[in-house]
Amino acid sequence: MIPLDIFADPVCPWCYIGKARLDRALEARPGHPFVIAWHPFELNPTLPAGGMARDAYLTAKFGVEAAKYHIPVLEAAKDAGVTMDLAAITRMPNTRDAHRLLHWAGIEGRQTPVMSALMRAYWREGRDIGDPAVLTEIAVQMGMEGEMVARLLATDADLDTIAAREAHARERGIDAVPAFVIGNSHLVTGAQPTSLWLQVIDELSGQQGAD
After folding, report:
1. Which domain holds residue 195?
2. What local confidence, expressed as pLDDT, does residue 207 receive?
3. Cis amide leading into 178 (omega within 30)
4. Residue 193 has pLDDT above 90, yes or no
């Protein structure tokens, strides 16, 4: 088996699209060699803990170009077959707690379902995934212990771990997401097309078969 380390933030539109494209390849190659692990990377680590209004965030980041920001995103989402309800999204959350939830989900082997649920909650349902109550509900839906998650979210548990893991990613040269590290050696950045992932899987499977 080959590790596929994915650095992503659930509120990153290209992470959502990139995951969908990768998922299509994994579905087409059920015997793929990847063991997937998700790693924290906050797009906006300086956001207030309670987040901010999404319109204000986009205006602050993109200025007068904010209205154009959605055009390529929506086109790529449609091409990838994923649903985005941008009108439903009113908050730009701080995702530090979402990354803590993903960290705990990893301990239980539930990372990918939890990441899928976080992205779905934000991009399709417009939910505030910086809200501990929303995160706890997602955890329960994905088979985690809700009371334990709620208790942990009310503390500083593993905040230092998330910060250290993200710092390590930046030290490795990862400065944007999504980013994929294949087999601890090959870095692939951006929301790559399904065709590329199929090619990678086929090449790796062929190499493994030749070993």
Report:
1. 2-210
2. 72
3. yes
4. yes
Q: What's the structural domain count of the chain?
A: 1
pLDDT tens column, 159-178: 999 999 999 999 988 999 99
Q: For residue 82, what are the contacts with CB-CB under 8 A and spacing of at least 6?
A: 16, 17, 20, 123
C-alpha dihedral sign at 184, 23, 13, 159: negative
**Is the separation of the CB atoms in 14 and 179 below 8 Å?**
no
pLDDT at 209: 52
Closest CA to 83 of 45, 113, 119: 119
Q: Are 66 and 59 in contact (CB under 8 A)?
A: yes
> Percentage of the chain with pLDDT > 70?
98
- The residues, any chain, with a CB within 8 Å of residue 101's CB and separated by 6 or more, are 114, 118, 135, 138, 139, 149, 153
Q: Phi/psi class of residue 51: alpha, beta or left (left: φ > 0; alpha: ψ in -120 to 50)?
A: left
- CATH of residue 36's domain is 3.40.30.10
pTM for the model stands at: 0.94
Among 187, 174, 191, which residue's Cα sits nearest to residue 72?
Answer: 191
Q: Is pLDDT larger for residue 206 or for residue 55?
A: 55
